Please model this.
Amino acid sequence: MATLAFPIPRPKYPTGVWSWMTTVDHKKIGVLYGVTAFILFLSGGLEALAMRIQLSAPNQDIVSPEIFNQLFTMHGTTMIFLAIMPMSAAFFNFVVPLQIGARDVAFPRLNAFSYWTFLSGAIMLKASWFLGGATNVGWFAYAPLTSLEHNPGHGVDFWILSLLLLGVASLAAAFNFLVTIINMRAPGMGLMRMPLFTWMTLITSILLVLAFPVITVALIELLFDRTFGMNFFNVANGAMPVLWQHLFWVFGHPEVYILILPAMGITSEIIPTFSKKPLFGYPTMVLAGIVIAFMGWMVWSHHMFTVGLGPIPVSVFTITTMAIAVPTGIKVFNWLGTMWQGSVDFSTPMLFAVGFVAMFTIGGISGVMHSAAASDAQQQDTYFIVAHIHYVLFGGSIFALLGGVYYWFPKITGRMYNELQGKINFWLMFVGFNITFFPMHFLGMDGMPRRIYTYDSGMGWTFWNGISTLGAFVLAVSFLIFVYNIARNWRKGEIADSDPWDARTLEWSIPSPPPEYNFVEIPTVYDRDDWWATKRKQVTHGVPVSGGSGEEGHSIHMPQPSYWPLVAALGLLIAAYGVVYNGVIYNFVLAAMGTLIAMVAVYAWAFEPVNDPEEGDQGSSY
Model:
Protein backbone atom coordinates (compact mmCIF):
# COMPACT_ATOMS: atom_id res chain seq x y z
CA MET A 1 0.00 0.00 0.00
CA ALA A 2 1.36 3.46 -0.88
CA THR A 3 2.19 5.57 2.16
CA LEU A 4 3.35 9.10 2.85
CA ALA A 5 7.01 8.92 3.82
CA PHE A 6 7.91 12.39 5.13
CA PRO A 7 7.41 12.99 8.86
CA ILE A 8 6.13 16.29 10.22
CA PRO A 9 6.41 17.78 13.69
CA ARG A 10 3.50 16.53 15.77
CA PRO A 11 1.69 18.91 18.14
CA LYS A 12 2.52 18.56 21.81
CA TYR A 13 -0.56 16.86 23.22
CA PRO A 14 -1.38 16.71 26.94
CA THR A 15 -0.31 13.61 28.82
CA GLY A 16 -1.55 11.70 31.84
CA VAL A 17 -4.97 12.45 33.31
CA TRP A 18 -5.19 15.78 31.48
CA SER A 19 -4.92 13.95 28.15
CA TRP A 20 -8.09 12.03 29.00
CA MET A 21 -9.89 15.16 30.22
CA THR A 22 -9.17 17.05 26.99
CA THR A 23 -9.29 14.24 24.44
CA VAL A 24 -11.43 14.44 21.32
CA ASP A 25 -10.15 11.10 19.96
CA HIS A 26 -13.15 8.83 19.36
CA LYS A 27 -11.22 5.79 20.64
CA LYS A 28 -10.35 7.38 23.99
CA ILE A 29 -13.89 8.68 24.36
CA GLY A 30 -15.14 5.14 23.68
CA VAL A 31 -12.92 3.82 26.46
CA LEU A 32 -14.14 6.57 28.82
CA TYR A 33 -17.75 5.71 28.03
CA GLY A 34 -17.14 1.99 28.53
CA VAL A 35 -15.22 2.19 31.81
CA THR A 36 -17.59 4.77 33.32
CA ALA A 37 -20.69 2.85 32.25
CA PHE A 38 -19.36 -0.41 33.65
CA ILE A 39 -18.57 1.20 37.01
CA LEU A 40 -22.13 2.54 37.06
CA PHE A 41 -23.39 -0.91 36.05
CA LEU A 42 -21.64 -2.36 39.11
CA SER A 43 -23.30 0.28 41.29
CA GLY A 44 -26.69 -0.75 39.87
CA GLY A 45 -25.78 -4.36 40.54
CA LEU A 46 -25.06 -3.57 44.19
CA GLU A 47 -28.47 -1.91 44.45
CA ALA A 48 -30.07 -5.06 43.02
CA LEU A 49 -28.10 -7.28 45.39
CA ALA A 50 -29.36 -5.26 48.37
CA MET A 51 -32.94 -5.86 47.17
CA ARG A 52 -32.33 -9.57 46.69
CA ILE A 53 -30.90 -9.87 50.22
CA GLN A 54 -33.98 -8.10 51.60
CA LEU A 55 -36.27 -10.54 49.74
CA SER A 56 -34.26 -13.70 50.39
CA ALA A 57 -36.52 -14.67 53.30
CA PRO A 58 -39.93 -13.57 54.65
CA ASN A 59 -40.47 -10.64 56.99
CA GLN A 60 -36.92 -9.30 56.80
CA ASP A 61 -36.08 -5.77 57.87
CA ILE A 62 -32.62 -5.29 56.38
CA VAL A 63 -33.70 -2.14 54.54
CA SER A 64 -36.72 0.05 55.23
CA PRO A 65 -39.65 0.30 52.79
CA GLU A 66 -38.51 3.80 51.78
CA ILE A 67 -34.94 2.68 51.06
CA PHE A 68 -36.29 -0.31 49.13
CA ASN A 69 -38.34 2.05 46.96
CA GLN A 70 -35.23 4.12 46.34
CA LEU A 71 -33.20 1.02 45.54
CA PHE A 72 -35.49 -0.34 42.83
CA THR A 73 -35.91 3.13 41.32
CA MET A 74 -32.20 3.84 41.21
CA HIS A 75 -31.43 0.31 40.02
CA GLY A 76 -33.78 0.56 37.04
CA THR A 77 -32.71 4.08 36.11
CA THR A 78 -29.03 3.21 36.46
CA MET A 79 -29.17 0.06 34.37
CA ILE A 80 -31.13 1.62 31.52
CA PHE A 81 -29.73 5.16 31.29
CA LEU A 82 -26.30 4.89 32.94
CA ALA A 83 -25.17 1.37 32.02
CA ILE A 84 -26.66 -0.29 28.93
CA MET A 85 -27.07 2.87 26.81
CA PRO A 86 -23.56 4.26 27.45
CA MET A 87 -21.96 0.81 27.17
CA SER A 88 -23.48 0.66 23.69
CA ALA A 89 -22.21 4.20 23.07
CA ALA A 90 -18.72 3.01 23.99
CA PHE A 91 -18.79 0.59 21.05
CA PHE A 92 -20.37 3.22 18.79
CA ASN A 93 -17.45 5.52 19.54
CA PHE A 94 -14.61 3.06 19.29
CA VAL A 95 -15.79 0.76 16.52
CA VAL A 96 -17.98 2.65 14.04
CA PRO A 97 -15.34 5.06 12.62
CA LEU A 98 -12.97 2.09 12.22
CA GLN A 99 -15.64 -0.03 10.50
CA ILE A 100 -16.48 2.67 7.96
CA GLY A 101 -12.85 3.62 7.24
CA ALA A 102 -12.93 7.07 8.88
CA ARG A 103 -10.26 8.79 10.94
CA ASP A 104 -12.67 10.16 13.54
CA VAL A 105 -16.31 11.08 14.01
CA ALA A 106 -17.76 14.07 12.19
CA PHE A 107 -17.74 16.35 15.26
CA PRO A 108 -14.95 15.34 17.66
CA ARG A 109 -15.56 18.10 20.23
CA LEU A 110 -19.30 17.44 20.26
CA ASN A 111 -18.39 13.79 20.89
CA ALA A 112 -16.34 14.78 23.94
CA PHE A 113 -19.16 17.04 25.12
CA SER A 114 -21.54 14.08 24.88
CA TYR A 115 -19.37 12.00 27.23
CA TRP A 116 -18.84 14.75 29.80
CA THR A 117 -22.55 15.61 29.80
CA PHE A 118 -23.37 11.92 30.32
CA LEU A 119 -20.97 11.88 33.27
CA SER A 120 -22.63 15.03 34.65
CA GLY A 121 -26.04 13.37 34.45
CA ALA A 122 -24.70 10.27 36.20
CA ILE A 123 -23.17 12.37 38.99
CA MET A 124 -26.45 14.26 39.32
CA LEU A 125 -28.44 11.05 39.79
CA LYS A 126 -26.04 9.26 42.10
CA ALA A 127 -25.46 12.37 44.24
CA SER A 128 -29.11 12.21 45.27
CA TRP A 129 -28.23 9.33 47.62
CA PHE A 130 -26.18 11.81 49.66
CA LEU A 131 -28.11 15.05 49.14
CA GLY A 132 -31.47 14.37 50.69
CA GLY A 133 -32.53 10.98 49.39
CA ALA A 134 -32.79 9.24 46.03
CA THR A 135 -35.98 9.16 44.00
CA ASN A 136 -38.49 6.51 45.06
CA VAL A 137 -41.12 6.38 42.30
CA GLY A 138 -39.77 3.72 39.93
CA TRP A 139 -37.73 4.32 36.80
CA PHE A 140 -41.04 5.11 35.02
CA ALA A 141 -42.03 7.76 37.61
CA TYR A 142 -45.80 7.49 37.25
CA ALA A 143 -47.92 10.52 38.13
CA PRO A 144 -49.26 11.44 40.63
CA LEU A 145 -46.55 9.75 42.74
CA THR A 146 -44.15 12.41 41.42
CA SER A 147 -46.28 15.35 42.51
CA LEU A 148 -44.97 17.75 45.15
CA GLU A 149 -47.87 16.72 47.39
CA HIS A 150 -46.88 13.05 47.40
CA ASN A 151 -43.12 13.56 47.04
CA PRO A 152 -42.00 16.77 48.75
CA GLY A 153 -38.27 15.91 48.82
CA HIS A 154 -35.70 16.56 46.12
CA GLY A 155 -35.27 12.97 44.91
CA VAL A 156 -37.66 13.38 41.97
CA ASP A 157 -36.02 16.70 41.05
CA PHE A 158 -32.59 15.05 40.91
CA TRP A 159 -34.08 12.32 38.72
CA ILE A 160 -35.68 14.83 36.33
CA LEU A 161 -32.56 16.96 35.92
CA SER A 162 -30.25 13.97 35.54
CA LEU A 163 -32.43 12.55 32.75
CA LEU A 164 -32.51 15.93 31.02
CA LEU A 165 -28.70 16.04 31.09
CA LEU A 166 -28.52 12.46 29.82
CA GLY A 167 -30.93 13.39 27.05
CA VAL A 168 -28.62 16.22 25.92
CA ALA A 169 -25.71 13.76 25.88
CA SER A 170 -27.67 11.15 23.92
CA LEU A 171 -28.90 13.63 21.31
CA ALA A 172 -25.41 15.07 20.82
CA ALA A 173 -24.03 11.57 20.26
CA ALA A 174 -26.91 10.54 17.99
CA PHE A 175 -26.58 13.51 15.63
CA ASN A 176 -22.83 12.96 15.56
CA PHE A 177 -23.11 9.33 14.51
CA LEU A 178 -25.82 10.05 11.97
CA VAL A 179 -23.57 12.57 10.21
CA THR A 180 -20.52 10.34 10.59
CA ILE A 181 -22.14 7.25 9.09
CA ILE A 182 -23.94 9.10 6.29
CA ASN A 183 -21.05 11.35 5.22
CA MET A 184 -17.77 9.70 6.20
CA ARG A 185 -17.89 6.15 4.87
CA ALA A 186 -14.84 4.98 2.93
CA PRO A 187 -15.04 5.11 -0.89
CA GLY A 188 -16.99 2.13 -2.17
CA MET A 189 -18.82 1.49 1.11
CA GLY A 190 -22.44 1.89 0.06
CA LEU A 191 -25.19 1.43 2.60
CA MET A 192 -25.57 -2.24 1.71
CA ARG A 193 -21.86 -2.83 2.28
CA MET A 194 -21.90 -1.42 5.81
CA PRO A 195 -21.25 -3.88 8.67
CA LEU A 196 -24.39 -4.81 10.61
CA PHE A 197 -23.10 -3.13 13.75
CA THR A 198 -22.79 0.16 11.87
CA TRP A 199 -26.31 -0.33 10.49
CA MET A 200 -27.69 -0.88 13.99
CA THR A 201 -25.82 2.21 15.20
CA LEU A 202 -27.43 4.25 12.42
CA ILE A 203 -30.92 2.96 13.25
CA THR A 204 -30.40 3.45 16.99
CA SER A 205 -29.25 7.04 16.39
CA ILE A 206 -32.42 7.76 14.43
CA LEU A 207 -34.49 6.34 17.28
CA LEU A 208 -32.62 8.50 19.79
CA VAL A 209 -33.22 11.65 17.79
CA LEU A 210 -36.94 10.91 17.55
CA ALA A 211 -37.57 9.43 21.02
CA PHE A 212 -35.68 11.67 23.42
CA PRO A 213 -37.61 14.86 22.60
CA VAL A 214 -40.77 13.07 23.81
CA ILE A 215 -39.36 12.25 27.25
CA THR A 216 -37.74 15.71 27.37
CA VAL A 217 -41.15 17.36 26.96
CA ALA A 218 -42.65 15.10 29.64
CA LEU A 219 -39.78 15.82 32.06
CA ILE A 220 -40.04 19.58 31.55
CA GLU A 221 -43.79 19.45 32.16
CA LEU A 222 -43.21 17.46 35.35
CA LEU A 223 -40.51 19.91 36.44
CA PHE A 224 -42.90 22.82 35.85
CA ASP A 225 -45.59 21.05 37.88
CA ARG A 226 -43.20 20.64 40.81
CA THR A 227 -41.46 24.00 40.54
CA PHE A 228 -44.12 26.46 39.40
CA GLY A 229 -47.34 24.70 40.42
CA MET A 230 -48.55 24.02 36.91
CA ASN A 231 -51.17 21.43 36.11
CA PHE A 232 -49.90 19.03 33.44
CA PHE A 233 -50.37 16.03 35.75
CA ASN A 234 -52.19 17.57 38.72
CA VAL A 235 -55.39 15.54 39.22
CA ALA A 236 -56.91 18.05 41.65
CA ASN A 237 -57.01 20.65 38.89
CA GLY A 238 -58.45 18.36 36.23
CA ALA A 239 -55.28 16.93 34.68
CA MET A 240 -55.08 13.27 33.62
CA PRO A 241 -52.07 11.44 35.06
CA VAL A 242 -52.45 8.81 32.33
CA LEU A 243 -51.00 11.48 30.01
CA TRP A 244 -47.64 10.87 31.69
CA GLN A 245 -47.90 7.17 30.93
CA HIS A 246 -48.55 7.86 27.25
CA LEU A 247 -45.66 10.31 27.01
CA PHE A 248 -43.32 8.05 28.94
CA TRP A 249 -44.07 4.88 26.99
CA VAL A 250 -44.11 6.63 23.60
CA PHE A 251 -40.46 7.18 24.51
CA GLY A 252 -40.07 4.06 26.61
CA HIS A 253 -40.78 1.42 24.03
CA PRO A 254 -38.50 2.78 21.31
CA GLU A 255 -36.04 2.99 24.21
CA VAL A 256 -36.22 -0.80 24.53
CA TYR A 257 -34.97 -1.06 20.95
CA ILE A 258 -32.38 1.66 21.58
CA LEU A 259 -31.04 -0.80 24.17
CA ILE A 260 -31.37 -4.00 22.15
CA LEU A 261 -30.47 -3.02 18.56
CA PRO A 262 -26.79 -2.36 19.40
CA ALA A 263 -26.68 -5.78 21.07
CA MET A 264 -28.10 -7.30 17.90
CA GLY A 265 -25.42 -5.49 15.91
CA ILE A 266 -22.63 -6.83 18.13
CA THR A 267 -24.00 -10.36 17.82
CA SER A 268 -24.16 -9.95 14.05
CA GLU A 269 -20.41 -9.22 14.03
CA ILE A 270 -19.37 -12.02 16.37
CA ILE A 271 -21.36 -14.95 14.96
CA PRO A 272 -20.11 -14.71 11.32
CA THR A 273 -16.51 -14.27 12.47
CA PHE A 274 -16.53 -17.34 14.69
CA SER A 275 -18.63 -19.38 12.25
CA LYS A 276 -16.18 -18.56 9.40
CA LYS A 277 -19.15 -17.69 7.20
CA PRO A 278 -20.71 -14.49 5.88
CA LEU A 279 -23.80 -13.34 7.74
CA PHE A 280 -26.78 -15.30 6.45
CA GLY A 281 -29.44 -13.10 4.84
CA TYR A 282 -27.65 -9.76 5.23
CA PRO A 283 -30.34 -7.71 3.38
CA THR A 284 -33.14 -9.21 5.48
CA MET A 285 -31.16 -8.53 8.66
CA VAL A 286 -30.90 -4.87 7.68
CA LEU A 287 -34.58 -4.74 6.77
CA ALA A 288 -35.55 -6.47 10.03
CA GLY A 289 -33.66 -3.84 12.03
CA ILE A 290 -35.43 -1.05 10.15
CA VAL A 291 -38.85 -2.68 10.64
CA ILE A 292 -38.19 -3.21 14.36
CA ALA A 293 -37.32 0.47 14.74
CA PHE A 294 -40.41 1.57 12.79
CA MET A 295 -42.79 -0.76 14.63
CA GLY A 296 -41.28 0.20 17.96
CA TRP A 297 -43.43 3.35 17.75
CA MET A 298 -46.63 1.31 17.36
CA VAL A 299 -46.61 -0.83 20.51
CA TRP A 300 -46.21 1.53 23.49
CA SER A 301 -49.68 1.01 24.95
CA HIS A 302 -49.10 -2.66 25.67
CA HIS A 303 -47.57 -1.24 28.86
CA MET A 304 -51.00 0.22 29.63
CA PHE A 305 -53.43 -2.65 28.99
CA THR A 306 -54.72 -2.43 32.57
CA VAL A 307 -55.38 1.33 32.74
CA GLY A 308 -58.77 1.17 30.98
CA LEU A 309 -58.00 2.25 27.41
CA GLY A 310 -60.98 0.34 26.03
CA PRO A 311 -61.28 -2.69 23.74
CA ILE A 312 -60.35 -1.02 20.42
CA PRO A 313 -56.93 0.43 21.39
CA VAL A 314 -56.17 -2.73 23.38
CA SER A 315 -56.93 -4.86 20.31
CA VAL A 316 -54.80 -2.67 18.04
CA PHE A 317 -51.80 -2.76 20.33
CA THR A 318 -52.22 -6.50 20.86
CA ILE A 319 -51.88 -7.01 17.10
CA THR A 320 -48.91 -4.65 16.67
CA THR A 321 -47.10 -6.19 19.65
CA MET A 322 -47.51 -9.67 18.21
CA ALA A 323 -46.41 -8.43 14.77
CA ILE A 324 -43.13 -6.95 15.99
CA ALA A 325 -42.04 -10.47 16.94
CA VAL A 326 -41.74 -11.28 13.22
CA PRO A 327 -38.67 -9.15 12.35
CA THR A 328 -37.11 -10.17 15.65
CA GLY A 329 -37.65 -13.83 14.74
CA ILE A 330 -36.02 -13.19 11.35
CA LYS A 331 -32.87 -12.06 13.12
CA VAL A 332 -32.82 -15.12 15.37
CA PHE A 333 -33.21 -17.52 12.45
CA ASN A 334 -30.55 -15.68 10.43
CA TRP A 335 -28.08 -16.00 13.29
CA LEU A 336 -28.86 -19.71 13.45
CA GLY A 337 -28.51 -19.90 9.66
CA THR A 338 -25.08 -18.28 9.90
CA MET A 339 -23.91 -20.91 12.38
CA TRP A 340 -25.51 -23.79 10.42
CA GLN A 341 -22.76 -25.94 8.88
CA GLY A 342 -20.19 -23.29 9.77
CA SER A 343 -16.80 -24.01 11.29
CA VAL A 344 -17.94 -22.74 14.68
CA ASP A 345 -15.29 -21.73 17.22
CA PHE A 346 -16.81 -21.41 20.69
CA SER A 347 -14.35 -18.86 22.01
CA THR A 348 -15.55 -16.54 24.76
CA PRO A 349 -17.10 -13.88 22.47
CA MET A 350 -19.03 -16.59 20.60
CA LEU A 351 -20.31 -18.09 23.85
CA PHE A 352 -21.71 -14.73 24.90
CA ALA A 353 -23.25 -14.19 21.46
CA VAL A 354 -24.96 -17.59 21.50
CA GLY A 355 -26.04 -16.94 25.11
CA PHE A 356 -27.58 -13.68 23.94
CA VAL A 357 -29.58 -15.44 21.21
CA ALA A 358 -30.88 -18.07 23.64
CA MET A 359 -31.76 -15.75 26.52
CA PHE A 360 -33.21 -13.00 24.35
CA THR A 361 -35.41 -15.60 22.63
CA ILE A 362 -36.85 -16.64 26.01
CA GLY A 363 -37.51 -12.97 26.81
CA GLY A 364 -39.13 -12.51 23.42
CA ILE A 365 -41.45 -15.48 23.93
CA SER A 366 -42.64 -14.11 27.29
CA GLY A 367 -43.07 -10.73 25.56
CA VAL A 368 -45.47 -12.28 23.06
CA MET A 369 -47.37 -13.71 26.06
CA HIS A 370 -47.77 -10.16 27.40
CA SER A 371 -49.11 -9.01 24.05
CA ALA A 372 -52.33 -10.91 24.73
CA ALA A 373 -54.29 -8.46 26.88
CA ALA A 374 -56.09 -11.19 28.86
CA SER A 375 -52.77 -12.82 29.77
CA ASP A 376 -51.21 -9.45 30.54
CA ALA A 377 -54.02 -8.65 32.98
CA GLN A 378 -52.82 -11.51 35.17
CA GLN A 379 -49.09 -10.89 34.71
CA GLN A 380 -49.15 -7.09 35.01
CA ASP A 381 -47.14 -5.74 37.97
CA THR A 382 -46.02 -9.20 39.05
CA TYR A 383 -42.57 -10.75 39.13
CA PHE A 384 -43.35 -12.35 35.76
CA ILE A 385 -42.76 -8.89 34.25
CA VAL A 386 -39.49 -8.57 36.19
CA ALA A 387 -38.37 -11.89 34.72
CA HIS A 388 -39.34 -10.79 31.21
CA ILE A 389 -37.51 -7.48 31.24
CA HIS A 390 -34.35 -9.06 32.63
CA TYR A 391 -34.34 -11.80 30.00
CA VAL A 392 -34.57 -9.07 27.36
CA LEU A 393 -32.16 -6.50 28.82
CA PHE A 394 -29.77 -8.65 30.87
CA GLY A 395 -29.96 -11.92 28.96
CA GLY A 396 -30.11 -9.77 25.83
CA SER A 397 -28.13 -6.54 26.04
CA ILE A 398 -25.65 -7.39 28.81
CA PHE A 399 -24.69 -10.77 27.35
CA ALA A 400 -24.07 -9.17 23.95
CA LEU A 401 -22.20 -6.19 25.41
CA LEU A 402 -19.83 -8.44 27.35
CA GLY A 403 -19.37 -10.51 24.21
CA GLY A 404 -18.45 -7.26 22.46
CA VAL A 405 -15.92 -6.41 25.18
CA TYR A 406 -14.17 -9.76 24.69
CA TYR A 407 -14.42 -9.54 20.88
CA TRP A 408 -12.90 -6.06 20.53
CA PHE A 409 -10.62 -6.26 23.59
CA PRO A 410 -7.58 -7.15 21.45
CA LYS A 411 -8.31 -4.22 19.14
CA ILE A 412 -8.86 -1.75 21.99
CA THR A 413 -5.83 -2.73 24.09
CA GLY A 414 -3.46 -4.63 21.80
CA ARG A 415 -3.60 -7.46 24.36
CA MET A 416 -5.42 -10.78 24.68
CA TYR A 417 -7.68 -11.63 27.59
CA ASN A 418 -7.37 -14.97 29.42
CA GLU A 419 -9.58 -17.44 27.51
CA LEU A 420 -10.09 -19.84 30.44
CA GLN A 421 -11.18 -17.02 32.74
CA GLY A 422 -13.45 -15.72 29.97
CA LYS A 423 -15.20 -19.08 29.67
CA ILE A 424 -15.54 -19.41 33.45
CA ASN A 425 -17.00 -15.91 33.46
CA PHE A 426 -19.55 -16.91 30.80
CA TRP A 427 -20.71 -20.15 32.41
CA LEU A 428 -21.01 -18.62 35.89
CA MET A 429 -22.92 -15.71 34.41
CA PHE A 430 -25.15 -17.96 32.32
CA VAL A 431 -25.98 -20.25 35.25
CA GLY A 432 -26.28 -17.41 37.77
CA PHE A 433 -28.54 -15.42 35.45
CA ASN A 434 -30.99 -18.27 34.95
CA ILE A 435 -30.98 -19.20 38.65
CA THR A 436 -31.71 -15.55 39.49
CA PHE A 437 -34.42 -14.69 37.00
CA PHE A 438 -36.13 -17.86 35.81
CA PRO A 439 -37.76 -18.52 39.23
CA MET A 440 -39.33 -15.07 38.98
CA HIS A 441 -41.67 -16.48 36.31
CA PHE A 442 -43.01 -18.88 38.93
CA LEU A 443 -43.26 -16.17 41.59
CA GLY A 444 -45.15 -13.91 39.20
CA MET A 445 -47.62 -16.59 38.16
CA ASP A 446 -48.15 -17.32 41.84
CA GLY A 447 -49.14 -13.68 42.35
CA MET A 448 -46.07 -12.06 43.93
CA PRO A 449 -46.30 -8.34 43.14
CA ARG A 450 -43.23 -6.48 41.99
CA ARG A 451 -41.96 -3.60 44.12
CA ILE A 452 -42.92 -5.08 47.50
CA TYR A 453 -40.17 -4.93 50.08
CA THR A 454 -41.23 -8.00 52.11
CA TYR A 455 -43.77 -10.81 52.26
CA ASP A 456 -45.26 -13.22 54.79
CA SER A 457 -44.06 -16.81 55.06
CA GLY A 458 -47.57 -18.07 54.41
CA MET A 459 -47.55 -16.76 50.84
CA GLY A 460 -45.45 -19.69 49.61
CA TRP A 461 -42.79 -17.50 47.96
CA THR A 462 -39.89 -18.28 50.28
CA PHE A 463 -38.21 -21.09 48.31
CA TRP A 464 -38.01 -19.35 44.92
CA ASN A 465 -36.93 -16.05 46.46
CA GLY A 466 -34.11 -17.86 48.25
CA ILE A 467 -33.04 -19.54 44.99
CA SER A 468 -33.18 -16.22 43.17
CA THR A 469 -30.97 -14.55 45.77
CA LEU A 470 -28.47 -17.41 45.54
CA GLY A 471 -28.29 -16.86 41.78
CA ALA A 472 -27.64 -13.16 42.33
CA PHE A 473 -24.51 -14.00 44.31
CA VAL A 474 -23.34 -16.35 41.56
CA LEU A 475 -23.81 -13.46 39.12
CA ALA A 476 -21.76 -11.21 41.39
CA VAL A 477 -18.88 -13.73 41.37
CA SER A 478 -19.03 -13.94 37.56
CA PHE A 479 -18.59 -10.17 37.28
CA LEU A 480 -15.66 -10.21 39.70
CA ILE A 481 -13.96 -12.69 37.35
CA PHE A 482 -14.77 -10.45 34.38
CA VAL A 483 -13.26 -7.40 36.11
CA TYR A 484 -10.13 -9.36 37.07
CA ASN A 485 -9.69 -10.76 33.56
CA ILE A 486 -10.07 -7.40 31.82
CA ALA A 487 -8.15 -5.28 34.35
CA ARG A 488 -5.18 -7.66 34.58
CA ASN A 489 -4.80 -8.27 30.87
CA TRP A 490 -5.29 -4.63 29.85
CA ARG A 491 -1.59 -4.09 30.58
CA LYS A 492 -0.16 -7.57 31.13
CA GLY A 493 -2.01 -9.75 28.64
CA GLU A 494 -0.36 -11.54 25.76
CA ILE A 495 0.38 -9.23 22.81
CA ALA A 496 -2.44 -9.51 20.27
CA ASP A 497 -2.15 -9.68 16.51
CA SER A 498 -3.93 -6.99 14.55
CA ASP A 499 -6.47 -9.63 13.44
CA PRO A 500 -6.54 -12.46 16.00
CA TRP A 501 -9.99 -13.74 14.94
CA ASP A 502 -9.53 -13.75 11.15
CA ALA A 503 -12.36 -11.23 11.13
CA ARG A 504 -14.31 -9.54 8.33
CA THR A 505 -14.46 -5.80 8.86
CA LEU A 506 -12.04 -2.92 8.36
CA GLU A 507 -11.11 -2.35 12.02
CA TRP A 508 -9.11 -5.59 11.89
CA SER A 509 -6.98 -4.35 8.99
CA ILE A 510 -5.05 -1.85 11.15
CA PRO A 511 -2.74 -2.30 14.16
CA SER A 512 -3.95 -3.05 17.67
CA PRO A 513 -4.47 -0.67 19.39
CA PRO A 514 -5.21 1.60 16.43
CA PRO A 515 -2.99 4.63 15.84
CA GLU A 516 -4.43 8.06 16.54
CA TYR A 517 -5.31 8.58 12.87
CA ASN A 518 -6.72 5.03 12.39
CA PHE A 519 -5.80 4.57 8.69
CA VAL A 520 -2.59 5.67 6.94
CA GLU A 521 -4.73 5.96 3.83
CA ILE A 522 -8.50 5.80 3.73
CA PRO A 523 -9.28 2.34 2.28
CA THR A 524 -11.39 1.71 -0.80
CA VAL A 525 -14.08 -0.90 -0.25
CA TYR A 526 -14.93 -3.42 -2.97
CA ASP A 527 -16.91 -6.02 -1.05
CA ARG A 528 -19.42 -6.32 1.80
CA ASP A 529 -16.90 -8.31 3.90
CA ASP A 530 -14.02 -6.36 2.43
CA TRP A 531 -11.29 -7.39 4.85
CA TRP A 532 -12.12 -11.06 4.37
CA ALA A 533 -12.14 -10.60 0.60
CA THR A 534 -8.78 -8.80 0.72
CA LYS A 535 -7.19 -11.59 2.75
CA ARG A 536 -8.56 -14.27 0.41
CA LYS A 537 -7.22 -12.30 -2.56
CA GLN A 538 -3.81 -12.21 -0.94
CA VAL A 539 -3.83 -15.98 -0.42
CA THR A 540 -5.10 -16.70 -3.94
CA HIS A 541 -3.21 -14.14 -6.00
CA GLY A 542 -0.43 -12.92 -3.75
CA VAL A 543 -1.88 -9.39 -3.69
CA PRO A 544 -0.56 -7.30 -0.75
CA VAL A 545 -3.08 -6.70 2.01
CA SER A 546 -4.33 -3.14 2.35
CA GLY A 547 -4.51 -1.26 5.62
CA GLY A 548 -0.89 -0.43 6.36
CA SER A 549 1.05 -0.91 9.59
CA GLY A 550 0.40 2.60 10.85
CA GLU A 551 4.10 3.00 11.67
CA GLU A 552 5.20 4.96 8.58
CA GLY A 553 5.97 8.65 8.61
CA HIS A 554 2.86 10.56 7.65
CA SER A 555 1.36 14.01 7.34
CA ILE A 556 -2.13 13.20 8.61
CA HIS A 557 -3.48 16.02 10.69
CA MET A 558 -5.94 15.33 13.49
CA PRO A 559 -8.04 17.66 15.68
CA GLN A 560 -6.20 18.85 18.78
CA PRO A 561 -7.48 18.25 22.32
CA SER A 562 -9.88 20.72 23.89
CA TYR A 563 -11.01 21.32 27.46
CA TRP A 564 -14.07 23.35 26.43
CA PRO A 565 -16.43 20.35 26.08
CA LEU A 566 -15.65 19.45 29.70
CA VAL A 567 -16.24 23.04 30.81
CA ALA A 568 -19.57 23.17 28.95
CA ALA A 569 -20.76 19.96 30.61
CA LEU A 570 -19.62 21.25 34.00
CA GLY A 571 -21.67 24.40 33.42
CA LEU A 572 -24.77 22.31 32.70
CA LEU A 573 -24.18 20.31 35.91
CA ILE A 574 -23.92 23.50 37.99
CA ALA A 575 -27.07 24.88 36.38
CA ALA A 576 -28.97 21.65 37.02
CA TYR A 577 -27.93 21.64 40.67
CA GLY A 578 -29.23 25.19 41.00
CA VAL A 579 -32.59 24.23 39.48
CA VAL A 580 -33.04 21.32 41.93
CA TYR A 581 -32.97 23.63 44.95
CA ASN A 582 -35.37 26.19 43.52
CA GLY A 583 -36.72 28.80 45.88
CA VAL A 584 -33.35 29.59 47.42
CA ILE A 585 -31.95 32.84 46.03
CA TYR A 586 -28.32 31.75 45.67
CA ASN A 587 -29.40 28.66 43.76
CA PHE A 588 -31.09 30.82 41.12
CA VAL A 589 -27.73 32.58 40.87
CA LEU A 590 -26.06 29.17 40.63
CA ALA A 591 -28.39 28.11 37.80
CA ALA A 592 -27.69 31.35 35.91
CA MET A 593 -23.95 31.03 36.46
CA GLY A 594 -23.90 27.43 35.22
CA THR A 595 -25.88 28.36 32.13
CA LEU A 596 -23.46 31.22 31.41
CA ILE A 597 -20.44 28.92 31.81
CA ALA A 598 -21.95 26.41 29.37
CA MET A 599 -22.75 29.13 26.82
CA VAL A 600 -19.27 30.65 27.02
CA ALA A 601 -17.66 27.21 26.67
CA VAL A 602 -19.71 26.32 23.58
CA TYR A 603 -18.90 29.72 22.07
CA ALA A 604 -15.19 29.25 22.82
CA TRP A 605 -14.96 25.78 21.28
CA ALA A 606 -16.80 27.04 18.19
CA PHE A 607 -13.92 29.49 17.63
CA GLU A 608 -11.05 27.14 18.38
CA PRO A 609 -8.58 26.89 15.46
CA VAL A 610 -9.21 24.19 12.88
CA ASN A 611 -5.57 23.07 13.18
CA ASP A 612 -4.34 23.71 9.67
CA PRO A 613 -1.20 21.72 8.79
CA GLU A 614 2.15 23.27 9.52
CA GLU A 615 3.99 25.09 6.73
CA GLY A 616 5.58 22.54 4.41
CA ASP A 617 3.06 19.83 5.30
CA GLN A 618 1.84 18.45 2.01
CA GLY A 619 -0.48 15.87 3.47
CA SER A 620 -4.18 15.91 3.95
CA SER A 621 -5.83 18.08 6.57
CA TYR A 622 -8.50 16.47 8.75
Observations:
- The chain has 18 helices and no strands.
- Residues 65-99 form the longest helix (35 residues).
